[in-house]
Design a protein that fits this description.
The protein is an alpha/beta fold. The protein has 2 domains: 2-272, 4-Layer Sandwich (Purple Acid Phosphatase, chain A, domain 2), CATH 3.60.21; 278-460, 5'-nucleotidase,  domain 2. It has 15 helices and 25 strands. The protein has helices at residues 20-37, 55-59, 63-71, 81-84, 89-95, 143-146, 156-170, 182-191, 259-276, 296-309, 332-338, 352-362, 365-368, 435-438, 451-460; strands at 2-10, 40-45, 76-77, 102-104, 108-110, 119-120, 122-126, 132-139, 151-153, 173-179, 197-200, 206-213, 216-221, 227-236, 241-251, 279-283, 313-317, 328-331, 345-351, 385-388, 391-396, 402-409, 412-413, 419-425, 443-445. The strands form 6 sheets. It has a 7-stranded mixed sheet, covered by helices on one side. Helix 1 (20-37) runs antiparallel to helix 9. The radius of gyration is 24 Å and the shape is elongated. The mean pLDDT is 95.
Length: 464
């Protein structure tokens, strides 16, 4: 006798709810088909479902996302870095309290004396015919951030060493829900061949028909749920083993919407609008956002960053502010809409020589025009760099480009061998946007505050 199990999955929605009604419609149709065929049907999510870029996620601090997963009848989820490090400890601690599904994340632990009741390392689900399917979850170990919020994330390899032996004894099939990224999934498959399926996320990779590393099938469905993934397992009860594994990612963006889900999202959107429409300040004139020019608002925000962190100097890119703040009453909704990024303030220690190189690079046309995607940035372009505590002296070349001839702090030229504490966006500590920031061995991150929290402080203190 052969049994067929379907595991449908989503990953990295990032609160992009535009596709969610199609996702739910697709899942409902598939569940009906599976019931008719006598097949087991399961639903899992691989994390970063919550992203506070969206007003619904912001207003409900992620709990509306959990409500949507409940109503879509999910069975198991793991969490991503957007659930893990973009909210205060107590908000994550409470996030899944009303979940009707299992939450598995084997390498996450609380550094307080309270462990959330919802947190499990792994869970076992039996199919219609008694097949024991074990799900274990892992999330990316960004401990520079997690530990500031009183969480710890263990190495995924150490965690798997601790759990897989017992799972192998008690489960027929092992499925890893991995919010680690493709290269990590491939390495795990090489090291742990006992894992049958790795369903991945985090790096937004799309594997339309999966890929094998050894005997492990790896799959993922991109980002924002344009695709929904499906894993099909064929189990032979006579020989007690999997005889076939398949993976697909299906483009659902053109499919019909589930109307109850659309209505639910409209209701949540209206309620979020009410929650966020609280007055937080007032301005007698429009505060302009200009990505390639100096503005009063961007300068005030950079000054706030400098004073709030106590650094020596500060710099922020003007692309962080997406739109003007009109004259009149300022609401939190407006603050969120013009600065939606889940970006934290940070301070890095650099030498004067490194600071001068950072400034030189930041002033280039190529840098300001980078169309950045990722690293928490939810805007269009990086934009002009705005400074606080630094004064630049420039001259215009014949080609019209400005060249820095001197940079001073408190009237004193920056000294190449001196050490300076630079406050900026944590965006620049990742990748190679500003290498001298990224490679600094002294980084201080400020959590759970986002830059929009400093923007809120800025507008509250405006004297306009």
């Amino acid at each position: 006798m052969q049994e067929t199990i379907h595991i449908y999955y989503t990953n990295d929605l990032h609160s992009y709810f535009e596709h969610w009604p199609q996702v739910v419609g697709f899942l409902k149709d598939k569940q009906m088909q599976d019931e008719v065929n006598g097949h087991t049907s399961l639903r899992v999510d691989i994390g970063d479902h919550v992203d506070r870029v969206h007003p619904i996620a912001e207003a409900f601090m992620g709990k509306a996302n959990i409500e949507l997963l409940n109503e879509a009848d999910y069975d198991v989820v793991t969490l991503g870095n957007n659930e893990g490090i973009t909210m205060a400890h107590e908000d994550l601690e409470d996030l899944y309290n009303e979940a009707s599904f299992s939450v598995v994340c084997a390498n996450l632990s609380s550094e307080t004396d309270r462990t959330p009741s919802w947190l499990q390392s792994h869970v076992q689900i039996q199919s219609l015919h008694g097949l024991r399917i074990g799900f274990i979850g892992l999330t990316a170990p960004f401990n520079d951030f997690y530990e500031l919020l009183d969480w710890h994330v263990e190495s995924p390899y150490v965690t798997l060493d601790d759990h897989l032996h017992d799972m192998k004894q008690s489960c027929d099939v092992i499925v890893l829900l991995s919010h680690l990224g493709l290269s990590e999934d491939q390495e795990i498959a090489r090291r742990f061949p006992e894992i049958d399926i790795i369903i991945g996320g985090h790096t937004h990779h799309l594997l339309k028909t999966g890929e094998y590393v050894g005997n492990t099938l790896i799959t993922a469905a991109g980002k924002q749920c344009q695709y929904v993934g499906e894993v099909v397992l064929h189990w032979n009860n006579n020989i007690q083993r999997l005889v076939k594994k398949e993976a697909y990612a299906v483009d659902i963006s053109h499919l019909a919407k589930d109307m109850p889900t659309s209505q639910k999202l409209q209701q949540l959107d209206e309620e979020a609008d009410r929650i966020l429409s609280v007055p937080v300040g007032y301005t007698s004139r429009t505060l302009k956002a200009r990505w390639f020019n100096h503005t009063e608002l961007m300068q005030a925000l950079t000054d706030t960053l400098l004073n709030w962190t106590g650094a020596d100097v500060a710099m922020l890119n003007a692309g962080l502010i997406l739109d003007d703040i009109p004259a009149g009453e300022i609401t939190y909704k407006r603050i969120h809409s013009v600065c939606p990024h889940p970006i934290n303030p940070c301070v890095v220690k650099v030498t004067g020589a490194e600071l001068l190189e950072i400034i030189r690079m930041a002033e280039t046309k190529d840098f300001t025009e980078i169309k950045l995607k990722g690293f928490g940035f939810r805007g269009e372009v990086i934009g002009k760099m705005i400074y606080s505590g630094i004064r630049l002296e420039t001259v215009k070349r014949s080609d019209g480009e400005e060249v820095i001839i001197n940079a001073t702090i408190n009237g004193v030229s920056i000294q190449p061998d001196e050490s300076y504490r630079l406050a900026t966006a944590d965006t620049f500590t990742f990748g190679r946007l500003l290498p001298e920031v990224a490679k600094s061995e002294s980084k201080t991150f400020f959590l759970p505050e986002f830059l929009r929290d400093l923007l809120l402080k800025t507008v509250k203190n405006l004297k306009l």
